[in-house]
Amino acid sequence: MSVYEDIGEERLGRIVRTFYDRVFQDPMLAHFFMNLDHEHLIAMQVDFVRSMLGGPQRYRGKPLEVIHDPMIIRPPHFRRRQRILQETMEEHGLTAEVVAYWLKQEERLKPLIMKDQTSCADP
User: Fold this and answer.
1) Cα(114)–Cα(77) distance, rounded to whole angstroms?
2) Which residues are within 8 A (CB) of 16 and not within 5 positions of it... i.e. 6 or more apart?
3) Nearest-angstrom CA–CA distance, 41 and 47
4) Please, which contacts does 66-71 make with residues 24 or more away whose CB atoms are closer than 8 Å?
């Protein structure tokens, strides 16, 4: 059974929506999403995560490096995103194993998302 099958389509959609609703309001991350169509973004993210977690459909959006190229995403931004994602998954009742797996998959994408790997606030 894939992680996607363990989570299920309906719960996956709720998790992604809750996560982005929080990110859109987060003082550290909201500015990245100010001029974007939130509903479209959520739909594309459900598609992407479904594919990433072993679901039946392939992601059909733009390559991640193209989408994130104009942004200056630094380690504190990425860590904040991961923290909100972890809290959201835990609140939706995912097991520790599934949470760890999903976060690990997201972590592997870091080189495609972050141009600037440095930060004066980074330990």
Assistant:
1) 9
2) 42, 45, 46, 49
3) 10
4) 68/112, 68/113, 68/114, 68/115, 69/115, 71/32, 71/115
Q: Which amino acid makes up residue 95? A: T
Question: Domain spans of the chain?
Answer: 3-113
Domain at 3-113: CATH code? 1.10.490.10
Give the pTM: 0.88
Q: How far apart are the first and last CA of the chain?
A: 38
- Which among 87, 72, 78 has a CA at the least distance from the CA of 106? 78
56-86, pLDDT tens digit by residue?
A: 877 777 877 788 877 888 899 999 999 999 9
**Residues in the chain, overall count:** 123
